[in-house]
Amino acid sequence: MILILEPNVDRSSEPYHQLLAYLNDSNQFTYSMHEVQGAVQHLTEIYLLGNTAALSVEQMKSLPCVDRVVRIQESYRILGRHGEENRQNGFTYNGVTIDQSNLHVFAGLCAVDNAEHVEIMFSALKDHGQVTSRMGAYKPRSNPYSFQGHGASCLPWVFDLAGKYGIKIIAMEVTHESHVEEIDAALRATGRATGVMLQIGTRNTQNFELLKSVGRQQEYPVLFKRGFGITLNESLNAAEYLASEGNPNVVFALRGMKNQGGDPHRNMVDFSHVPVVKRLTRMPVCVDPSHSVGTRDHSPDGILDVFHATAQGVISGANMVLVDFHPVPSKALVDGPQALRMDELPWFLEDVAIARAAYEKRAALASSRS
Ligand code: PEP
Ligand code: MN
After folding, report:
1. How many angstroms is it from 201 CA to the middle of ligand 1?
2. In which band, very low, low, confident or very high, does the pLDDT at 39 lie, cut at 50, 70 and 90?
3. Ligand 1: distance of its center to the CA of 229 in Å?
4. 256 lines ligand 1 (CB under 6 A)
5. Residue whose CA is closest, atom 8 of ligand 1?
6. 110 lines ligand 1 (CB under 6 A)
7. 136 lines ligand 1 (CB under 6 A)
8. What topology is assigned to 103-368 in CATH?
9. Is residue 17 scored above 80 in pLDDT?
10. Fewer CB within 10 Å, N- or C-terminus of the chain?
11. CB 225 less than 6 A from any atom of ligand 1
């Protein structure tokens, strides 16, 4: 059971002390406090653990300072929505708010190759008003002889260039806990020129030790990719590892499922799960059309399948799009066949805006009926 206290509760007040006295006296449960800093208000949530089935919601709601009471179901204790419409969903990091109601495009290189290409990418993003990007430095590859990413050596100049072009967040995959330390050290050395969202790739969805160590740090939010061969429930439980260790600032990414039903796409596009994840959890939802589709093929209408898949996610209410671009896709060291070209960036952004406007109209229509 979760007790959500009145916003900005005064901890020196008498009612607050009465509440703590009540909680400390109980031998039915133990409790832990969680502070949630939102864009506009500070919330205190108190998690009651133990025999809470016997507690009545009404009785707990009448305690001093308690605003709302949520009875939690078994799964996704922290990240779950538990049927509550009004709980905080999302977070603000480095001045950018990412939640279940807005949308950000993270366009960038699947893998950092050289400074020229990185600079072309960041500069194009700046020209189009974008402050978020993706850049891979640590690449998990199927083949041990394939390029594995430049690793820590590229971080200083990637972060410096990001700062130069006003990029606030870079989504960057980590495959080992030492990568978080390397990213942290490089960011510190550049005076925190930019920010990083740590990405957990689909191959590491159930690497529980990695999840625990990434969850223990609270500096960086996490972009968590759905496992490509497990159920949605298993992936959501895995994401909960991050929150259970202390970091609830998690975006859940759909990136397609590996099965032959997806052919000729690289993976079976699963963006119909955007509303499902938003209903079950409080995580903002990302779609990755590049790793879902895996090609630059287009339909007779001239629209690339990557654009179509993106629009399908965005029109369903996705909050983030992670998409591969490259100045010269034929020279990309990783995933060139699915990369969009720089001249396609304004077209892509406009197409996303059309799908977003359609989503907003659909949401307004739904709420006009309720
Ligand atoms: C990526 O985004 O670069 C990536 C490797 O994605 P995934 O883990 O979804 O395959
Ligand atoms: Mn890739």
Report:
1. 5
2. low
3. 14
4. no
5. 201
6. yes
7. yes
8. TIM Barrel (3.20.20)
9. yes
10. C
11. yes
Q: What is the pLDDT of residues 328-345, one digit of tens each?
A: 999 999 999 999 999 999
Task: Tell me the residues surrounding ligand 2 (ion) with CB < 5 Å.
Answer: 110, 335
Give me 352's structure tokens. 């996303």
Band of residue 86 on the pLDDT scale cut at 50, 70, 90: confident
Query: What is the distance in A from the centroid of ligand 2 to the CA of 291?
Result: 6
Domains 2-89 and 103-368 share a fold: no
| pLDDT tens sequence across 181-191 | 999 999 999 99
- pLDDT band at 88, cuts 50/70/90? confident
Q: Ligand 1 centroid vs 1 CA: distance in angstroms?
A: 36
Quick one: fold of 2-89?
A: Alpha-Beta Plaits (3.30.70)
- Tallying the residues shown for the chain, one arrives at 370
What share of the chain in percent tops pLDDT 90?
89
Ligand 2 mean position to 66 CA, how many Å?
46
